[in-house]
């Protein structure tokens, strides 16, 4: 199911633990790592698709997680032509995704990469929140940056340095005593 512009509706899942680290899965028989994600089937809501994909790819059930939030809008990435199946070329451009931020309220041992007959991942680990930006395949990097950036505001307090990727800076909305201009002496 593609939209009129050639993008497949999809959900992305950022699963966090109590230390605010993120689940990172290694694609089966590949050397690439990514967040869980998957297509939205006809008649499914994004939330229903998220729970289905969460079970299919990570083995978790709704009672194992708490929804912290989701992206407001669809985020899109275009897949390079050499990654697209020949029969899809010309119509398929990439994915448009709603991203969910989840907190694991179950235990690590609830994760099962073999919950279905067609596993997506053959290994997983917890990473610091922004590490996936350094390791995801190039054409997904901007969508990861957008999703992580939008959802970080729901996970980290305003003053938590983990709220922004390294090298990014922001100005406080309210000036503190130290940042307020002092009157000049006469």
What report would you give on this structure?
With 186 residues, this protein is an alpha+beta fold. The chain has a single domain (7-163), classed as Alpha-Beta Complex (Nucleoside Triphosphate Pyrophosphohydrolase), CATH 3.90.79. 18% of the residues lie in helices and 26% in strands. The protein contains three helices and eight strands; from the N terminus they run E-E-E-E-H-E-E-E-E-H-H. The longest helix has 15 residues, at 141-155. It starts with 6 loop residues before the first strand and ends in a 31-residue tail after the last helix. Mean pLDDT is 88; it is low at 169-186.
Layout of helices and strands:
Blueprint (H helix, E strand, L loop, with lengths): L6 E10 L5 E6 L5 E2 L2 E3 L6 H13 L6 E6 L4 E4 L15 E11 L16 E7 L3 H5 L5 H15 L31
Parallel strand pairs: 1-7
Antiparallel strand pairs: 1-4, 2-3, 2-8, 5-7, 6-7
Strand content: 25-35%
- Which fold name corresponds to the CATH topology? Nucleoside Triphosphate Pyrophosphohydrolase
Count the strands?
8
Stretches where pLDDT is under 50 for at least 5 consecutive residues are: 169-186
Biggest beta sheet summary: 5 strands, mixed
Q: Alpha-carbon distance between the termini?
A: 71 Å
Give the fraction of residues assigned to helices.
10-25%
Rounded mean pLDDT is: 88
- Count of helical stretches: 3
Shape: globular
Summing up helix and strand content along with how strands pair, one would put the structural category as alpha+beta
The CATH architecture designation is Alpha-Beta Complex
- Supply the CATH class: Alpha Beta
Number of domains: 1
Assembly form of the protein: single chain
What are the secondary-structure elements, in order, as H or E?
A: EEEEHEEEEHH
- Rg value: 19 Å
User: CATH homologous superfamily, by name?
Assistant: Nucleoside Triphosphate Pyrophosphohydrolase
């Amino acid at each position: 199911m593609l939209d009129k512009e050639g993008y497949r509706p999809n959900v992305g899942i950022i699963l966090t633990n109590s230390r605010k680290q993120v689940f990172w899965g290694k694609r089966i028989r590949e050397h690439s790592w990514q967040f869980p994600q998957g297509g939205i089937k006809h008649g499914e809501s994004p939330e229903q698709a998220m729970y289905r994909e969460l079970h299919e790819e990570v083995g978790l059930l709704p009672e194992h997680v708490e929804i912290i939030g989701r992206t407001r809008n669809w985020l899109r990435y275009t897949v390079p032509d050499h990654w697209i199946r020949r029969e899809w070329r010309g119509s398929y451009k990439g994915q448009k995704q709603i991203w969910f931020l989840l907190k694991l309220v179950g235990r690590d041992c609830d994760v099962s990469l073999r919950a279905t007959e067609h596993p997506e991942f053959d290994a997983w680990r917890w990473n610091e929140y922004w590490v996936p930006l350094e390791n995801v395949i190039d054409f997904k990097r901007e969508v990861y940056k957008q999703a992580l950036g939008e959802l970080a505001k729901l996970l980290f307090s305003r003053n938590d340095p983990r709220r922004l990727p390294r090298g990014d800076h922001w100005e406080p909305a309210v000036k503190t005593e130290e940042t307020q201009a002092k009157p000049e002496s006469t």
